[in-house]
Amino acid sequence: MILYLILLIGAAWLIQSILGFLQIRHFNRKYAEMRSLGRVAIGKKTGMFRAGTVVMFCIDKRNKIVKAAKMQGVTVFSRVRDLKGFEGKYLLKISEADFNGVDKLTRLAIADALRSYDIISKGGELRVKKGLIDYLIPSKK
Q1: Angle at CA of residue 34, ends 65 and 40, nearest 5°
Q2: CATH topology of domain 2-126
Q3: How many CB atoms lie within 10 A of CB 29?
């Protein structure tokens, strides 16, 4: 009985890993597609027990949004989809009116993209947020 349970857990882990790999590959392809069009500003809002959201804005040399996309969900079946309503707007001039019809997590991810772009454009460096593993196993630097 325990052997079957171990095999079931192992099979579930393997399927989760394969599907996670496919999701990351899909995201990387979409990112490369957007990167071929211009610079890309990325923002994220992670959720522990709710949907995480990643937004990508492809911008030209004048910071005009050429293409916008987002990936939102809690499972490995989430895919990158177009984010309507932002094409043609200037990244640094996105206003509250532009957020009509956008959910709260997407708003927070867009705010993160704007903050990240601002830091990078000024020559700064993004701070990486510590994860659970970092707290459990501290690195010695």
Answers
A1: 55
A2: Sufe protein. Chain: A (3.90.1010)
A3: 11
